[in-house]
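Bit of a strange request maybe. I'm writing a small parser for structure token strings and I need a real example to test against, not something I typed by hand. Could someone generate the tokens for this chain?
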Amino acid sequence: MTKFISRFAKDESGATAIEYGLIAALIAVALITVLGTMSGSLKDTFTKVSTELDTANKPAA
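Reply from user aminoacidic:
Good idea to test on real output. This should exercise your parser:
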């Protein structure tokens, strides 16, 4: 029983998975924050591009 407890205490494989999970969560929070901040300017840019494409596609009168 003592060998099992000491082996369990030395096992660090679960810690690595937790670390990767925390890193992934941090990246997700950073992406959400950045995209939320830039959403207004992105919308303006896509609206401008859409307007320009619509203007370019209209036949000449």
